[in-house]
Design a protein that fits this description.
alpha+beta; Arc Repressor Mutant, subunit A; six-stranded antiparallel β-sheet; 8 helices; two-stranded antiparallel sheet; SH3 type barrels; 8 strands; 3 domains
């Protein structure tokens, strides 16, 4: 059974899990106070206070001057929050026809509903999806994440290599809206036509129909799978 946690505490656990997941090279698999503060857009002093509270609840391991990591209980709680968030995003897009750039903030609210029965029924209603509308993996009720096969970053693709988009590495609404306006989404076919070494921008062809130049900021957030 899940612990009784505030929304703020759940947000911290989710943030720490995602930071550790996205930064696998972090020393000793620990995340710093400053990194958490930046991710949650809050003061380092507030982070220090919350980390102490979560550590006292047995959810974090804290080592002075070295940062913190999740305990097994903390990790389980974080994964459950992420599961709910991504299931709700999927529901909003697939069943209520929201655009993929509209669902993050709504799912941020819905993820705090404390009902494992509802979460499991929602997953079953959606036929237990493996990935959300942005291509992020949805953990199952045992906390196991499905994996993309042979995923890589678009920036690492070769010229004239055919691929499909399988994941967007940011939930930024402006980025997602920009991609939609250029008909780029999950399962879009994408081929690199040119790479600009000056600014790391890239000219790509989308679905064999039109070409567009993508900035470095956009390119770094697109993940692909090579197709023959």
């Amino acid at each position: 059974m899940s612990l009784s946690l505030s929304q703020s505490e759940e947000n911290y656990l989710k943030s720490i899990f995602n930071l550790l997941d996205e930064n696998s090279a972090l020393k000793d698999n620990r995340v710093s106070t400053n990194l958490i503060a930046k991710d949650l857009q809050t003061k380092a002093s507030s982070v220090t206070e919350m980390i102490k509270k979560l550590s006292d609840k047995g959810l974090l391991l804290l080592e002075k001057y070295k940062g913190c990591s999740l305990t097994s209980i903390g990790k389980k709680e974080a994964i459950e929050i992420i599961r709910k968030h991504r299931l709700w995003e999927t529901f909003l897009v697939e069943k209520l026809a929201f655009n993929w750039n509209e669902v993050h903030d709504i799912a941020e609210q819905l993820e705090h509903i404390k009902s494992p029965i509802l979460t499991n029924k929602l997953s079953a209603f959606l036929n237990h999806p493996n990935f959300d509308p942005h291509g992020d993996p949805i953990p199952d009720e045992n906390g196991i994440f499905p994996k993309h096969d042979s995923i890589q970053k678009l920036k690492d693709t070769l010229i004239n290599q055919n691929s499909i988009v399988v994941k967007i590495g940011s939930d930024n609404a402006d980025l997602l809206s920009h991609l939609s306006k250029n008909n780029i989404g999950i399962h879009s076919q994408i081929k690199c036509l040119e790479k600009n070494e000056f600014d790391d921008s890239m000219k790509v062809e989308i679905d064999s129909q039109h070409s567009i130049t993508l900035s470095k900021k956009v390119v770094k957030n697109i993940y692909i799978k090579i197709i023959k």
